[in-house]
Automatic annotation (TrEMBL):
<feature type="domain" description="Glycosyltransferase 2-like">
    <location>
        <begin position="6"/>
        <end position="137"/>
    </location>
</feature>
<protein>
    <submittedName>
        <fullName>Glycosyl transferase 2 family protein</fullName>
    </submittedName>
</protein>
<dbReference type="InterPro" id="IPR001173">
    <property type="entry name" value="Glyco_trans_2-like"/>
</dbReference>
<comment type="similarity">
    <text>Belongs to the glycosyltransferase 2 family.</text>
</comment>
<dbReference type="InterPro" id="IPR029044">
    <property type="entry name" value="Nucleotide-diphossugar_trans"/>
</dbReference>
<dbReference type="Pfam" id="PF00535">
    <property type="entry name" value="Glycos_transf_2"/>
</dbReference>
<keyword id="KW-0808">Transferase</keyword>
<dbReference type="GO" id="GO:0016757">
    <property type="term" value="F:glycosyltransferase activity"/>
</dbReference>
<keyword id="KW-0328">Glycosyltransferase</keyword>
Length: 275
């Protein structure tokens, strides 16, 4: 029997988290596979871990103080899973992503079709209008599924299947990133090692897009507030952006974008006029 570790990190989205886990459990058991779930509680104060423990007592909850955010929370869950055993697959899952009843089986079949030697990124769509929201990406943005596996350069980490072969070669997420960029970074790291990333053949669930303009580049907020948010893990986080750009694209693009991101902070109207 092969094994799967499902990895999540959560913070104060109790109802969504319970729905996400409920959708996951509807698929279990999967014939021929054992499934363990590792979930980082990143300092929830809304009763999320207590509700999970009551409704889904099998979930392994790792508690933290609320300073991990998405990337480091996922890193922590993944690290805990690998302490327990060497799994055949690792499945990243966002708590605001609601997968369809046969999604895991479809992701596994996609992985098997490429000999379990590639990353399979699940495509999600909006429940409201069916438009693509998250998944595999290239230079033109999100890649809509077309019924076949499609190569992608990087991907959103909403639902991603990592076979053991890939984990053994790449390892965990890069702990340098606090919230964003860790998923994009992982796909680019894979590409440098010759490991392919594929978009799933079909949508495997729903997740609504976060379309609101970030506060740090929104001219309706005062500069002092924009600066405060800018340096937070949920803001522009220029140091992490510079690290990412330099790592994957070189020093010159990193320096250029470091300048432009600060320009956007101080004069966001330039970008607003371009829309």
């Amino acid at each position: 029997m092969k094994s799967i570790a499902v990895l999540l990190t959560v913070f104060n989205r109790k109802e969504k988290t319970l729905q996400c886990l409920g959708n996951l459990y509807k698929q279990l058991p999967i014939q021929g596979y054992s499934v363990d779930i590792y979930l980082t509680n990143d300092g929830c104060t809304d009763g999320t871990p207590e509700a999970i423990a009551q409704k889904f007592p099998e979930v392994e909850i790792i508690h933290s103080k609320g300073n991990l955010f998405w990337n480091r929370g996922m890193y922590t869950a993944w690290k805990e899973a690998t302490k327990r055993k060497e799994y055949d697959y690792y499945l990243w899952l966002n708590d605001d992503t609601f997968i369809y009843p046969d999604s895991i089986s479809r992701l596994l079949n996609d992985s098997i079709s490429v000999k379990d030697e590639a990353i399979i990124c699940g495509a999600t769509c909006s429940e409201k209008d069916g438009k693509p929201t998250y998944g595999g990406r290239n230079n033109n943005g999100i890649i809509p599924p077309n019924g076949s596996l499609q190569i992608c350069q990087h991907f959103n980490g909403n639902v991603v299947l990592i076979p053991r072969y890939v984990y053994q070669r790449i390892g965990n997420l890069d702990y340098t990133y606090s919230h964003a960029l860790g998923d994009f970074d992982y796909g680019l790291r894979a590409g440098k090692l010759g490991i392919k990333s594929y978009q799933s053949k079909e949508y495997i669930g729903t997740c609504e897009q976060h379309n609101s303009l970030a506060k740090w580049c929104n001219s309706s907020y005062p500069l002092k507030e924009r600066i405060r948010v800018f340096h937070s893990p949920l803001g522009g986080h220029p140091k992490e952006n510079f690290y990412f750009e330099r790592k994957h694209y070189g020093v010159f693009p990193a320096c250029l974008h470091y300048f432009t991101i600060h320009l956007r902070l101080f004069i966001p109207q330039i970008w607003e006029k371009r829309k």
